[in-house]
Amino acid sequence: MRYEQSGIADFHAELRDSGVSVDVADMMAKVGEAVSSRHTRMEQPRTGRTSTPTSIERFVEEEFAPRYRGDVQRG
């Protein structure tokens, strides 16, 4: 698995290709645009107290990948 950055238009197209409705894909794309343009921002800044120290690599290896492969029992 690798990280790949894509633009809002590609994100919207991938949502649609995955079966997401036009309205929902539009709303999700607007959120991405608002965050990217800084029109929307978090009220609380990220700090050591409000953020996890877990890297994306560790999360993928320990949490996401096993579930994606079906290695983890869901309870």
**Quaternary structure state of the chains depicted:** single chain
Secondary structure category: mainly alpha
- The separation of the N and C termini measures 25 Å
* Number of discrete helical segments: 3
Question: Could you give the count of β-strands?
Answer: 0
Q: State the helical fraction.
A: 40-55%
Radius of gyration: 16 Å
Shape: flat
Q: Which percent range describes the beta-strand content?
A: under 5%
Low-confidence stretches: none
What can be said about the biggest beta sheet? none
What average pLDDT do the residues reach?
A: 87
The string of secondary-structure elements, in order, is HHH
Please provide a written account of the structure.
- The protein is mainly alpha-helical and 75 residues long.
- 52% of the residues lie in helices and 0% in strands.
- It starts with 7 loop residues before the first helix and ends in a 6-residue tail after the last helix.
Quick synopsis:
The chain has 75 residues and is an all-alpha fold. It contains 3 helices and no strands. The radius of gyration is 16 Å and the shape is flat.
Descriptive key words:
3 helices; 75 residues; flat; single chain; mainly alpha
Layout of strands and helices, then pairs:
Blueprint: H1 8-17, H2 22-36, H3 56-69
Helix pairs in contact: 1-2
